[in-house]
Design brief:
Layout lengths: L2 H6 L4 H18 L3 E4 L4 E4 L3 E6 L9 E7 L8 E8 L2 E8 L7 H15 L3
Antiparallel strand pairs: 1-2, 2-3, 3-4, 4-6, 5-6
């Protein structure tokens, strides 16, 4: 992880710990992803972005917002918002509050998002 990631999570140690756990689980399952730090998010990508991590507005939350691109709107309780940016591409926003949220279902969604992004030209 590079210094920009640590700067992104400055003052939010619980969020950084959760992000590191997410990356470790993702790498175990399907290999490492590259990271690109922006002002408001960290993008995860291979050839194309398949997920983004951002911080909740309330600093006290200590969690993360995981946004995944899929060809459909997720109908799950943990999805708090979804938007169809263009036809056939939904950005689904998932609140992560702790390591227990990094379950098999979430990892399967990340695999699906990764495959969906890789299928684009």
């Amino acid at each position: 992880m590079d210094a920009d990631v640590y700067l992104f999570f400055a003052g939010r140690p619980r969020a950084l710990e959760l992000y590191e756990a997410l990356l470790a689980r993702l790498e175990e399952r399907s290999g490492p992803a590259r990271e690109r730090v922006r002002r408001t998010q960290v993008s995860l990508y291979d050839r194309r972005v398949f997920a983004c991590v951002s911080l909740p507005r309330r600093k006290a939350d200590g969690g993360l917002v995981l946004s995944v691109g899929l060809p459909y709107k997720l109908e799950e309780d943990r999805v708090f918002a979804a938007a169809e940016g263009y036809p056939g591409r939904w950005t689904n926003h998932i609140a992560l509050s702790g390591p227990d949220d990094l379950d098999e279902g979430l990892l399967a969604l990340l695999d699906e998002a990764r495959a969906f992004a890789d299928s684009k030209r």
